[in-house]
Design a protein that fits this description.
Number of strands: 12
Bound molecules: glutamic acid
CATH superfamily of one domain: HUPs
Number of helices: 21
CATH topology of one domain: Rossmann fold
Strand content: 5-15%
Strand order of the largest sheet: 1-2-3
Length: about 450
Amino acid sequence: MRVRFAPSPTGALHVGGARAALYNWLMARQSGGTFVLRIEDTDRERSTPENIEQILDALRWLDLDWDGEPDLQTTHEQRHRAVVQQLLDEDKAYRSTATADDVRAYKDEHGAGVGFRGAEHATRSHEEGVGAVRLRVPEGETVVRDLVRGDTTFQNVHMDDPVIARADGSPLYNLAVAIDDHDAGITHVVRGEDHLSNTPKQLLVYAALGAEPPAFAHLPLLHGPDGKKLSKRHGAASVQELRDAGYLPDAVVNYLALLGWGDADDETEISRGELVKRFDIGRVSKNPARFDETKLKWLNGRYLRAQGVDGLTATIAGHLQASGHGDAIIGRDELLRTAVEISQEKIQTVDDFWPLAGFLFTGPVDDEKARDKWLDAGHQPNLEAVRDTLSSLEEFSVASVDGALRALVAELGAKAKDVFQPLRVALAGTAVSPGVFESAAALGRDETLRRIDAALAGSAA
Ligand code: GLU
């Protein structure tokens, strides 16, 4: 089996593209076959080195390794031109000066469903530069055999003679793709459904060359949870955005693999090895798949915790360095480990960590609403009582803080939240944090009392 991923490097790798790359990769690795990466760089303005690097970078991050060097489509241009010439020589193609208006006039005359035949506009000579090159569509039918969608038959009479090269001889997409796939010995073309309408044209090229076409699989588009085509509006829509938002590549691979693949629902944790074993393109649904970031988040949280506290601490430390919080954690390895330990159940991406636990390192955040609600005059006596209790504790640990403060709640006859929330806001500056006893113990007695004093001073003011 030889498969390929053939992106046009126009910017970030969309998650739909990443899914196509992944399915190809899974098929290659399962079969012991070859995964070719072909960069379709014929649009030279958009195919900048940076855009190419973005695609490679996204694939590397996902750990989808390709075999051999990336193949640049522009390096095959001479071959494409030679095939165009061969098809002209064999009279399987012709040069035509037909304009869009000519095509319209033809349809007006013959009926809208009748494929355009440009014979009347064919230039007498095959001289270069006179008219675009069109392929002659033969009589008969063209069958697209698709592993996801089954067979679709197109009657050739409805197909326009496709343009395969511009007047200057430069090849067009449908010609270039078919030749490159053929030359690379590609056995299965797995790509997005947006290419479905191109496939019959590519099959005509194979037929003109007398070549056996590959099998095809067109993957349904990705929709957001609202059933509309996936876009930025739904959150992260590219691999780069997912990485920046703090997802782990293994969780992304797991989630993308299961999207619309009938073997498991999209919340199952399946290792890469298991995916390679079990993946079956024939079981991919032909209905649009729903990319739901909340499910990915949930799955990502499980992958995060599966790293264990030490592994997760290292992952988070790396992310904090990269996102500009490196200074705040220098020399505070133990606090970071504790912070990770007490936050892990509440975070789903590494990005969630700092907003939740950053206060342990940098002091309370500034959440006026939380302060107004929980550090008001009404709660002040409770916070003072908390201070007294904590300052007289013999040992300052999660268990001792927990026990003493619960006893205090009972003694005061107060609601737990009216005692715990003022403490939480004093420590964190806001009402969402890791466990309040755990947070106090992580900060230690001195810092805890210092923050309570500051809060009491602030709320009294
Ligand atoms: N270069 C095309 C694209 O990025 C894909 C071509 C193909 O997979 O056949 O949309």
